[in-house]
Specification:
By secondary structure, this protein is of the alpha/beta class. The chain has nine helices and eight strands. α5 crosses α6.
Length: about 250
C-alpha cells in the first residue's frame, strides 16, 4: 500500500504506484481526476460523493484504455453508497437535460420498503437495487435488456409478480397483507418502467389492461387468502385504482 504522505513528494508516489504490481494508492482528495496511470484495474471509494460529475471522474480513473494489459472491465468498490444515489459509471445519462433542462438533476432515491426484485439465481425476493442476494449471495447487478410485449416495451429482467414469493417475503420480514399488496403494486408498476409515454397512451385500453388483469387479479386473491395478518381490507377494484393512478401519475 502506498500512502501519499510527507515522506514522498506526489510525483514519486505516482511513479512508485505506476511501477509496483498490485499496488494500492491510498489518498484523500487527490488523484480523483486528471490521473494518467492507465492500467488501474480497481477503484475503491470510501466516501460519499455529492457531485455526479465528480463521481464519474473518480470512477473513470479505472476506465482508461491501455496497451499495457488486457482490460475489458474494471472493479468498483463503493463504500459510500454512491451507486444507489448517483448511478453506475456505465449508465447512460441525459446530459442535455442535466445541463440545459428546466429540472435540476436529482440523485436516485433510496428504494421504498415495498420496492423489491427477484434474485436471478434463487428467485427469492429482496430489496430493489441490492446487488448481493441475502439468501444465496448471488450478484444480481446486470445490464438491463428490453423486449416488446403487447405493443409495450416491458423490461425483460423484471420478473412478473408471484403471490407465493410475496407472501413468503412478508412472512420473513413480519409484514401484513396491505404491505404484500403494496409489493404487488410496485412489481407490476416496474413492468412499465421503460415504456415510452406514447406507447403507454396508445395501448392504455388494450395492452395495459391485459397486463393488469393478468398479473393483478390472481395474485390479489392469493394474498387475501394467505395467513398474513390483516389490519384492513382492500377490494380488488380499489387495488386496481391505486395501480392505475400510479401509472397515470407517471405518464400524464
Amino acid at each position: 500500500m502506498i500512502v501519499n504522505d510527507t515522506d514522498f513528494n506526489r510525483s514519486e508516489v505516482v511513479e512508485l504506484f505506476r511501477n509496483t504490481k498490485g499496488a494500492i494508492l491510498f489518498n484523500v482528495g487527490v488523484f480523483t481526476k486528471g490521473f494518467d496511470v492507465t492500467d488501474v484495474e480497481a477503484i475503491i471509494v470510501s466516501r460519499r460523493v455529492s457531485s455526479l460529475s465528480l463521481w464519474i471522474q473518480i470512477v473513470g480513473r479505472g476506465s482508461r484504455t491501455t496497451d499495457k494489459l488486457f482490460k475489458d472491465r474494471f472493479i468498483v468498490i463503493d463504500g459510500g453508497n454512491n451507486i444507489d444515489r448517483l448511478g453506475k459509471w456505465s449508465d447512460n445519462f441525459d446530459w442535455e437535460k442535466i445541463f440545459w433542462g428546466t429540472d435540476d438533476y436529482k440523485a436516485k432515491k433510496e428504494p421504498t420498503e415495498e420496492e423489491v426484485t427477484e434474485c436471478d439465481n434463487c428467485g427469492e425476493l429482496m430489496k430493489e437495487r441490492t446487488c448481493l442476494c441475502p439468501s444465496c449471495g448471488h450478484n444480481n447487478c446486470k445490464i438491463k435488456e428490453i423486449k416488446i410485449d403487447v405493443g409495450l416495451a416491458i423490461q425483460q429482467n423484471v420478473i412478473p409478480p408471484e403471490a407465493k414469493k410475496i407472501i413468503d417475503y412478508c412472512q420473513k420480514i413480519n409484514k401484513d397483507k396491505i404491505f404484500a399488496l403494496k409489493i404487488l403494486t410496485s412489481q407490476i408498476y416496474q413492468m412499465f418502467k421503460k415504456v415510452p409515454k406514447e406507447q403507454f397512451l396508445a395501448n392504455r385500453n388494450t395492452g395495459v389492461e391485459r397486463v393488469l388483469n393478468t398479473h393483478l387479479k390472481l395474485n390479489y386473491f392469493k394474498i387475501l387468502k394467505s395467513d398474513l395478518p390483516s389490519s384492513a381490507n382492500r377490494t380488488l377494484k380499489r387495488q386496481k385504482e391505486i395501480l392505475i393512478n400510479k401509472l397515470e401519475k407517471k405518464y400524464l
